[in-house]
Design brief:
The chain is an alpha+beta fold. It has helices at 3-19, 36-45, 52-61, 108-114, 130-138, 150-155; strands spanning 34-35, 67-69, 75-78, 92-93, 99-104, 116-117, 124-126, 143-148, 160-162, 168-170, 172-173, 178-181. It has 2 domains: 3-78, RNA 2'-phosphotransferase, Tpt1/KptA family, N-terminal domain (Arc Repressor Mutant, subunit A, Orthogonal Bundle); 93-181, ADP-ribosylation fold. 31% of the residues lie in helices and 21% in strands. The strands form 4 sheets. It has a 4-stranded antiparallel beta sheet, with no helix packed on it. A 3-stranded antiparallel beta sheet has the order 1-3-2. A 3-stranded antiparallel beta sheet has the order 5-8-12.
Length: 189
């Protein structure tokens, strides 16, 4: 399958497994799960045919591991990033001492004033490494990376979760736990 086709299917799945499942007649179960056969049927009925093989390729080859199957292979879900109401059934986890958040340079003034907010999503997304955060920040302009003192946040009883694809999630990151990094040296400004 071409990279373009993989991308189109991934975007379609993101839209309907994270943001608007009802648009194609799906209802997410607890954990964000939907039956694979139901997804394939709903997609076909709505003019976007996906084969099971294509679905497997998207899950296996997605660079950000956005989707996963349950152990039986009969259910699929988006791992995080939902804007639709759903209980993701995430378990609290102890984070590493430092996590990273990538954003675009336009967002920096707001973040320095109010911290990191989940906006329309269920959580703030954090990365375990600087490069991943930079890649996230590149999507909407010049990337800026913030180091998050997750150790201090955890000690202050903020609850962290880790999604199946390794993304760290938290409800909010107050300004006092953030430190902007220099884009070239990765050292604090």
């Amino acid at each position: 399958m071409s990279d373009r086709k993989l991308t189109n299917i991934s975007k379609y799945l993101s839209k309907h497994l994270r943001h608007s499942p009802e648009q194609i007649g799906l209802q997410l179960a607890p954990g964000g799960w939907v039956e694979v056969d139901e997804l394939l049927s709903a997609s076909r009925k709505n003019g976007f045919t996906i084969t099971r093989i294509q679905l497997q390729q998207v899950v296996d080859q997605n660079d950000k591991k956005r989707f996963s199957f349950d152990p039986t292979g009969n259910l699929i879900r988006a791992n995080q990033g939902h804007t639709t109401e759903v209980d993701l059934q995430l378990l609290a986890a102890i984070p590493p001492d430092v996590l990273y958040h990538g954003t675009s340079n336009q967002s920096v003034p707001s973040i320095l004033q109010t911290g990191l907010s989940k906006m329309s999503r269920h959580h703030v997304h954090l990365s375990a490494d600087i490069q991943t955060a930079k890649n996230v920040g590149k999507r909407r302009g010049r990337p800026v990376v913030f180091a998050v003192n997750s150790k201090a946040m955890h000690q202050d009883e903020y609850i962290f979760y880790r999604s199946d694809n390794g993304v760290w999630l938290v409800d909010f990151v107050p300004v006092q736990y953030l430190q902007q990094l220099d884009t070239f040296t990765n050292k604090p400004l």
